[in-house]
Design a protein that fits this description.
single chain, three-stranded mixed sheet, globular, Amidase signature (AS) enzymes, eight-stranded mixed sheet, alpha+beta
Amino acid sequence: MDDVHELSMLEQAAAVRRGDVSPVELAEHYLRRIERLDGAVGAYLTVTPERALDDARRAELRLAAGGELPPLLGVPLPVKDLDPVPGIRCTTGSAVFADRVAPPEAATHLVGLLERAGTVLLGKTNTPEFGLPAYTESRVGPPARSPYEPALGAGGSSGGAAAAVAAGLAPAATGSDGGGSIRIPASCCGIVGLKPSRGRISPAPEGDVSGLATAGPLARTVRDAAALLDVMAGPVPGDPVPLAATETPFLAWCERTPGRLRIARWARPDVPDVTVEPEVLAAYEKTSALLAELGHDVIDADQPLRPGDRDAFTPVWAVLAGLAPVPPEREAELMPLTRWLREQGRAATGLEYARSLAAMQRVGRRLAAAVAPYDAVLTPTLARLPQPVGALRDDADPAADFAAQIAFTPFTGPWNIAGLPAVSLPLGWTGQGLPVGMMLGAPHGAEGPLLALAAQLEATVPWAGRRPEIW
């Protein structure tokens, strides 16, 4: 029991079915680890021991009853604090909502899927205010830190989820990604982070009207990410961009040999005056060589986006920031970046917003057309190594804060604009032991082949054995 957290999510599910560990024992193990270690990484905003043990006892009854069992019965998982769970505190990363408890009608489709899969709720993971920045720092909780070097940030906005998985405080986790918010922290924390295609996971009952954001899995292994995606995926009637369920489970794709693939690559950002750090470029070249050694055709391609193409992203992001229902008298309690974005969002007219959405669609089509001739595309996940806590944040100058985030994450946002799948894999490591994520993207709907390629890379250069000191 002392090392059950060493098992992958799928291994834990199998251990529960065999009776090697009970759901209650597994939940108690993680709750003890969270109590002992979370202060160093800031992974959780709310821990739910009573709910976790109740869920675990129900899982034990289900196990004793026999019959067909859900895939992740008894496995403890957290939920990002942007997703309300009825009866549990939901801050959305904001001090304005520090004491809010989600009402019964706030249940989301995603949370329902996790419950039906048999998971045990450990708590709500740390997120910045409304999930807006690429770092996880707020006034409602401590910053989320990389377990590999706690002076460095875990990235955002799913920073708490990534820190929990990397520190062994959860076997896997759900996150959300509107401009890189799964892949950024996956890179900073040395784990797998998958942003699915637009429409793969239903946003029901509500959703991001821009189409930028989607939920997705974070895990230590590709197979765990695939298995969690199998649980999360599927359309709901009325979804604006529904993707039919796949005939082949995503986990099964991980057992397939991908064959010889055409893989494009580029490492030049489309953002003017943004450069990529040498250690990131070194990992990119090493990954390119590995792909070639595996028999794939690696082809240099031009950066498909032009300077200014992503300008439409900012007003759309600002409008999304403005949608949060903050009482006017409490607006001053928001983070400076949040207020700055909301002011821009409120100033935008309906026509300006519609034009920005149309401009984003044009950019998305340009990227999708560039990706279409290939089976996959390789880029760095981030332009820089993980940054110190507070290095990107600039409360005195929110515009500079936003610019610093884009310079840190120039490769992630375009995949949200186009709605294409992309995964960050911990394929690079510095001499100091810091993770460097590499990103693989694919055409719309091609998560299966993308996971097959990711699993091949993981089998060739396995990373699951790497552990931060906190482990």
